[in-house]
Amino acid sequence: MIGKLTGKIDSLGESSLIVDVGGVGYLVHCSARTLRALPGVGAPVALAIETAVREDAITLYGFLDPAERDWFRLLQTVQGVGAKVALSIFAALSTGEIARAIATQDKASLGRAQGVGPKLAQRIASELKDKVGALPVPAGASLPGAALAPVESGPVSEAVSALINLGYRRIEAMDAVAKVQGRLGEGANTADLIRAALKELGR
């Protein structure tokens, strides 16, 4: 099983690249987000690899961070999420955004990914909500976890909705509210959360 490839980029495609490792070219499938982050042809590259072995094919999936590979595996434990859908989720959301969306049961954000309808978004959010804390997220990405209540009700929901109405993206609003609630405590009211979140967003 191949777990990592280190070489140089031979060519780049719409959904894959070829990594030249000592004269051998490996076809590696990646999300659109990963492909955009890669350097140009001829540049050195190191990818964490997930190897999928089937009767008729061996397919390699590449990730810039081993944490992304862990999330790729976890997403596929949900019925209806295969490799193609998992990669489309990575194309729409970063690993940190996926973690926040699941932790806060934000089905709308998960539904931004191609191939993820409302029912599948609900299944992903509900089945993985207790597993989010077990996986790493990139440095600098905040994970609200238990500190942020589900967005369906209460001061958190009201504060997030107010920020969205002011023109902020849902992910930005949720992240800001998560940070300030951690400082203010779970008893913070809606007005306090909004004021503090606006200051956070204005930094």
In CATH, the homologous superfamily of the largest domain goes by the name 5' to 3' exonuclease, C-terminal subdomain
What is the averaged pLDDT score? 84
Morphology: elongated
- Derived structural class: alpha+beta
**How many strand units?**
5
* Termini gap: 46 Å
So, CATH architecture of the largest domain? Answer: Orthogonal Bundle
Question: How much beta, percentage-wise?
Answer: 15-25%
Low-pLDDT stretches: 138-152
Please state how the strands of the largest beta sheet are arranged side by side: 1-2-3-5-4
> What would CATH call the class of the largest domain?
Mainly Alpha
Report the order of strands and helices. Answer: EEEHEEHHHHHHHH
Question: From the alpha-carbon coordinates, what is the Rg to the nearest angstrom?
Answer: 19 Å
Report the sheet with the most strands, covering strand number, pairing sense and barrel closure: 5 strands, mixed, barrel
Percent of residues in helices: 40-55%
Question: What does this protein structure show overall?
Answer:
The chain is an alpha+beta fold and 203 residues long. The protein has 3 domains: 60 residues, Beta Barrel (OB fold (Dihydrolipoamide Acetyltransferase, E2P)); 69 residues, Orthogonal Bundle (DNA polymerase, domain 1); 57 residues, Ubiquitin-associated (UBA) domain (Helicase, Ruva Protein, domain 3), CATH 1.10.8. Helix content is 44%, strand content 18%. The chain has a 5-stranded mixed beta barrel with strand order 1-2-3-5-4. Helix 7 crosses helix 8. The chain is elongated, with a radius of gyration of 19 Å. The chain starts with a strand and ends with a helix. About 7% of the residues have low confidence.
